[in-house]
Structures
1.
Amino acid sequence: MLNPGMQRARVPLSSPPYRRLVIKVGSAVLSGKEGRRRLLAIADQVAALRGEGREVVLVSSGAVATGMARLGLTQRPRTMPGKQAAAAVGQPVLMQLWEQAFAWHDLKVAQVLLTAEDLAHRHRYLNARHTLKTLLEWGIVPVINENDTVMVEEIKFGDNDQLSALIASLVAADLLIILSDIEALFDADPRHNPQARPVRYVEKVDAEVLRMAGDDPNQVGTGGMRSKLLAAEKAQAAGIPMLLLPGTRPGVVLQALQGEPVGTFFAAGQRRYSGQKLWLSQLPKPAGEILVDAGAARALREGGASLLPAGIRGVKGSFGVGEAVRCLDPRGNLVGVGLVNYSSAEIERIMGAKTRDLEAILGYKHSDEVIHRDYFALASELAAGGFG
Ligand SMILES: Nc1ncnc2c1ncn2[C@@H]1O[C@H](COP(=O)(O)OP(=O)(O)O)[C@@H](O)[C@H]1O
Ligand SMILES: N[C@@H](CCC(=O)OP(=O)(O)O)C(=O)O
């Protein structure tokens, strides 16, 4: 949903002070001849923001692009192991650049490499949160990237735009800033449509807005504009506004926060959840699937019920206690996602059974419910780019 009256993106004057920021820097900003200069300019701005009493978490892409430069490759490797090898070469070089850039300002950096799996386990997610919180308390600038060398296609976040939105929720940021190589969101892909006009304000990321974006990235990036819109959608669902800015322009973050009209501002949405349920609704990948019967599907969808063993007809995949799984109805439609109190092996033994028989079957009982209602989010409530 656009607001045609609002021509230029301004951080609204009525906005909160934006004390905690997550700033994502795209590969396009950090690569090429100008990459080094832009990295230094971003570090200058982060240092200035820190000086104003704000906290900043950086999400930095660029490991693959930096590795390519270091290895003298002119084309992005096509295979997954090729990209991973390039990232393994590039990541330490990239961190060294951030380390040096921040050292000028007497600031220390910390490298945090995450996989989607890390955030899909509640205890690992909470560990990541504690670590980031501690780093911020110590006055350190965390620099996060996907752990490219160990991730596999099935469990990757998709790209760092998605990761940055998840991190914004994780640290309860006041604002997510995405720095790319483009002035703003345009109403059509500007590479194919020279008449495309910038959109300065987006109230809500809906189908009309998603239609504007191409999903093929620039030469070095990954997700394209579509993935930035999906990140905005995730941030909006968490009640966090997002600002898309041209990271190629020095000083642009400070200008935007002073109210200058630059980039595209995505309003904070109505926060749908907090805590556990927010995390569930944004998870990138499920650990497995539970097939439920029609009665259980109705009870979950309409009655806000917990999932009992009696309503389970099948299990797919192998998962442990506490993992997040998809629940599918008899037609294969997604009912929602939830955290299981039993492993897939246990569910295979107790599916279809009455609650009172669980102890006799297993010899113990963790709980009556396989998924408790407080740990379940309906399909209609999931963020785009999540389980869906
Ligand atoms: N509607 C649109 N508005 C702006 N940019 C778009 C649009 N559709 C596609 N793009 C392209 O998306 C690119 C940015 O995405 P990406 O390559 O993933 O960047 P990054 O490396 O910063 O993550 C821009 O360079 C632009 O060419
Ligand atoms: N982890 C990858 C990032 C890939 C990625 O999402 O890139 P981009 O679209 O430029 O944010 C790297 O460091 O190269």
2.
Amino acid sequence: MVLAQLGGSISRAIQQMSNATIIDEKVLNECLNEITRALLQSDVQFKLVRDMQTNIKKIVNLEDLAAGHNKRKIIQQAIFNELCKMLDPGKPSFTPKKGKTSVVMFVGLQGSGKTTTCTKYAYYHQKKGWKPALVCADTFRAGAFDQLKQNATKAKIPFYGSYMESDPVKIAMEGVERFKKENCDLIIVDTSGRHKQEAALFEEMRQVSEATKPDLVVFVMDSSIGQAAFDQAHAFKQSVAVGAVIVTKMDGHAKGGGALSAVAATKSPVIFIGTGEHMDEFEVFDVKPFVSRLLGMGDWSGFMDKIHEVVPMDQQPELLQKLSEGNFTLRIMYEQFQNILKMGPIGQVFSMLPGFSSELMPKELDSSNPKLMNESRMMRIARGSGRHIREVMEMMEEYKRLAKIWSKMKGLKIPKKGEMSALSRNMNAQHMSKVLPPQMLKQIGGMGGLQNLMKQMGSSKDMMGMLGGGDK
Ligand SMILES: Nc1nc2c(ncn2[C@@H]2O[C@H](COP(=O)(O)OP(=O)(O)OP(=O)(O)O)[C@@H](O)[C@H]2O)c(=O)[nH]1
């Protein structure tokens, strides 16, 4: 997710400022310009960025800061507060209550992920013991009802819709009435996706809202919408009483800054974010931990929540008891590894720890430039992994050795399954001789021995089987 890059850029700007011996107005301006650039590149609306910059300058009056105060901390806190302010409209959204009927209507642009999000929202509450139900009032897109029906059936959530009826208002009303009678406590109405320019569809959305009288209207927004986010969100807000925002596709390559702008446009908080296509890839959104993670300041409460989520509460005392008795078995190790895997993408988990931005891990892991691993990074890895810096350096040496070998293999065509002869043609003795350590090549019998060996490998059925099946 590119928002992580935004966090990385902001953290770097603060870090650079921290490196300066004296923090004067020039240094502060440079830092703020850097942050402004990063926010604009991430598609945050220009006016919001400009306001933020002015506010920080107002708060951080360098002359007023008494000597001895930690200026960096004050500036970092001001940036943190401003980002939080941008994402927090200051009033919480309506929160449905379990056991008491609430109608929640979903609106948004076409393809924003509305239908998927409706089911995720229902599923999330169902897991917590609610009785949700889904109503498909999208008569505009062919296949919308089928999609909702499929999702709802998979999650075992009751649904209502029609293949025949073309009036969304009628369907919405019937669905809501029916589920009220069935004592559902969360009735979710999915509406058709629309565009700011489509006046008729906006009118239809308004009518559905008037007829079903939702307790909450949720605006679903794709995180990749970019600079258009503010205007689009604003147009929705003018037609219906948007009370909350859900940002989808936060797992993708979206810049995500539009999400920040949408909050400002609707003056409504983000309540959840969608992080994948699956039903449970859905997270509650909290402003402070989010900004904290964005700035690499960590999120301890989120980290502890994850731990509680993956190690069931009832198993925790038992586990502690076993460990305190010195009873560390292979099964415990296996289960703990499984639990760690359940915590989700490792980058996401690490971003909850202070000093880690989720951008850092992929950058380091996916870079083929060993120079990126400078001394301070290696020191950090050594500290974090409880290893000696020497061991990290050895690992990097090993990485460089392997990278060199692989660079010699450049141009090697990887055969498809069932094309072993292509592999033997490509992976000729010349290539192999470059890869093998000289000692080993000598033992095999030099170039001649290697050619022989490769011929044997090529004709051996077992070897081909091992390598993915041979030509028939
Ligand atoms: N990666 C990812 N994909 C998502 C997420 N949420 C939804 N999608 C995908 O986005 C696509 C569009 O989602 P829909 O739910 O059909 O969108 P919609 O807004 O209901 O579409 P309309 O009915 O045309 O308005 C689907 O392929 C979803 O699987 C998410 O959080 N992450």
